[in-house]
Amino acid sequence: MAETVHSPIVTYASMLSLLAFCPPFVILLWYTMVHQDGSVTKTFGYFMENGVQGLITIWPKPTMIAWNIIFCYGAFEAALQLLLPGRRVEGPISPAGNRPVYKANGLAAYFVTLATYLGIWWFGIFNPAIVYDHLGEIFSALIFGSLIFCVLLYIKGHVSPSSSDSGSCGNLIIDFYWGMELYPRIGKNFDIKVFTNCRFGMMSWAVLAVTYCIKQYEINGKVSDSMLVNTILMLVYVTKFFWWEAGYWNTMDIAHDRAGFYICWGCLVWVPSVYTSPGMYLVNHPVELGTQLAIYILVAGILCIYINYDCDRQRQEFRRTNGKCSVWGRAPSKIVASYTTTSGETKTSLLLTSGWWGLARHFHYVPEILSAFFWTVPALFDNFLAYFYVIFLTILLFDRAKRDDDRCRSKYGKYWKLYCEKVKYRIIPGIY
Ligand code: NDP
């Protein structure tokens, strides 16, 4: 039986709003950034004049060139995922008691992707600025293509599930939205969620960050220091992600959220369009910060990315060594929590209650949000839209912390209560 994450009413409301508002929002964000100088007021003025018909007019048709770019990129990433060597990694035990096996070749795929992209630009084979010039069409194609992809996932979940971590909750809409399978595969080895979340979604973030930089260079003949700080911080963040990709396979996205519209659409459409948007904004806003300010922002951003990484590393090291590690120079304090799997087996997990995980139950979200702030702040404060990702991320992570707390409470019962008594705050120590 598929586990639903929110109540059916919240699921319907969020599904309807996601379907109704997110695709137009992606197009409006692109249109405002690229054609209205990043100004919400200008876009608003356009709609006052043109009404709803204005949206149809600006909505780009998914052209052949857009499909070609998406297809070549997707096929290249899929080939790297399948073919590059990597060590064998076992994922966490699933709710049905399975242990999925992965090939950890993300960092190699990341470097091969960036080297290939820069190489084809350098040797004049393909100009990345073309991607920026067709961005609206690409986002439009992704919006429709991902919807079809999610329908196929739903059908696969019914017809040919890859493991016992699958099943229907009996409601078609909820099945489509939250997904049928935890880790669907093509064959034994090609993991679809690793492809959508990591190799397509997260990789597109790095590829587009580089694209925006190259486009600004093409327009102005140089790259502004604000764009450099933004691009470097985003690349450090994505490098950190791929460095730690096998760790990501232990997180909620992979270990708990099923492959449905919510997560797949998010990774295939929202990540390339919204997550990269501070860089998209900077293309037409070559702000000069001056060396000193640029370096301060850069250092602050790298520090936040490092702390975020260290939080994840600490938790995973603690779990990997079964608590036999040092946390901030001492033996970790912990709770031994037992729980029952869906197949009725009793298992135990360790909950770390010292180090970063003793400050708040989801302290790692604080440096995550601050990192995003630091790669956006080079845009300064002319247009609030550049900050949309930071605002969105803050809402997402506060909701996620609640979802995770609810899930862990139902998984660990009295042990989670004990953890909450020991570590009182959910995200911000002393405040929330
Ligand atoms: P994680 O899945 O890594 O951590 C939460 C899980 O860890 C819980 O579900 C629980 O799983 C286990 N856990 C909880 N408390 C403890 C503890 N005290 N000791 C040991 N294990 C514990 O969280 P996220 O997936 O949310 O985050 C992973 C990373 O991804 C973070 O760096 C985050 O900032 C980033 N992120 C970024 C997003 C973005 O859009 N930019 C979105 C979401 C995350 P179990 O069932 O195993 O006990």
From TrEMBL:
PANTHER family on file: 7-DEHYDROCHOLESTEROL REDUCTASE (PTHR21257:SF38), DELTA(14)-STEROL REDUCTASE (PTHR21257)
EC number: 1.3.1.21
Keyword GTP-binding: no
Keywords: Cholesterol biosynthesis, Cholesterol metabolism, Endoplasmic reticulum, Lipid biosynthesis, Lipid metabolism, Membrane, NADP, Oxidoreductase, Steroid biosynthesis, Steroid metabolism, Sterol biosynthesis, Sterol metabolism, Transmembrane, Transmembrane helix
Name recorded for this polypeptide: 7-dehydrocholesterol reductase
Family designation: Belongs to the ERG4/ERG24 family.
UniProt source species: Camelina sativa
Pfam families found in the cross-reference section: ERG4_ERG24
Membrane topology annotation: Multi-pass membrane protein
InterPro entries, sorted: ERG24_DHCR-like, Sterol_reductase_CS
Entry's localization field: Endoplasmic reticulum membrane
TM stretches of this protein: 12-31, 65-86, 107-126, 138-155, 227-244, 259-277, 289-309, 372-398
